[in-house]
Write a structure and sequence with these properties.
By secondary structure, the protein is an alpha+beta fold. Helix content is about 35%, strand content about 25%.
Length: about 180
């Protein structure tokens, strides 16, 4: 079964540095098949019969053992990723894939979290949660956005890692090849 691994905070800034060739080698040696990475920020497509939660836990363990890093990892099947892209709830407003983001969460965000996030959103920003994903439109960029900073932080109560729409669709394409 093709699955996508999303690692939180890999190769962002000076910390949590992992070379993608080394990561591919480590995961291949661990028995995962068809291991491919995308970009340098912890996006991996693999074939595995483990459940997504089991796969994420195994990947976390291998990163800790092989690189000495404690990294949050989320996994989605290729079918789950296809559903994320199919939904595309902000398609009518999100016209720049670099400013349209999906935050993949370890659990569904609750109403209180979504209210807190919406309260932080600038008037031009849009936010929609569907299942375990939060779709965010940042027409002025997420770098200076209070909303973007909150979602990328650790105070959400769920583990989350964010990818822009271009990366989301590229990962889906890789998983379907």
């Amino acid at each position: 079964m093709r699955q996508i691994l999303l690692m939180r905070g890999i190769n962002v800034g000076a910390g949590n540095r992992i070379s993608m060739p080394s990561l591919r080698e480590r995961l291949t040696a661990a028995g995962f098949e068809q291991v491919r990475t995308h970009l340098q920020s912890g996006n991996v497509v693999v074939s595995s019969e483990l459940s997504p939660d089991q796969l994420a836990a195994e990947c976390r363990r291998h990163i800790a053992e092989g690189f000495g890093l404690n990294i949050d990892v989320l996994a989605r099947t290729a079918d789950e990723f296809a559903e994320v892209v199919r939904r595309d709830p902000l398609a009518e407003v999100a016209d720049d894939p670099s400013r349209y983001q999906v935050s993949f969460c370890s659990a569904e965000p609750d109403d209180a979290l979504m209210q807190r996030l919406n309260d932080l959103a600038a008037p031009s920003e849009r936010l929609i949660a569907v299942g375990r994903e939060i779709y965010g439109w940042y027409p002025d960029g997420s770098g200076r956005s209070r909303l973007g900073a909150e979602i990328s932080g650790r105070r959400m109560g769920v583990t989350a890692t964010t990818r822009n729409w271009r990366t989301v669709t590229a990962l889906l394409q890789m998983a379907q090849e």
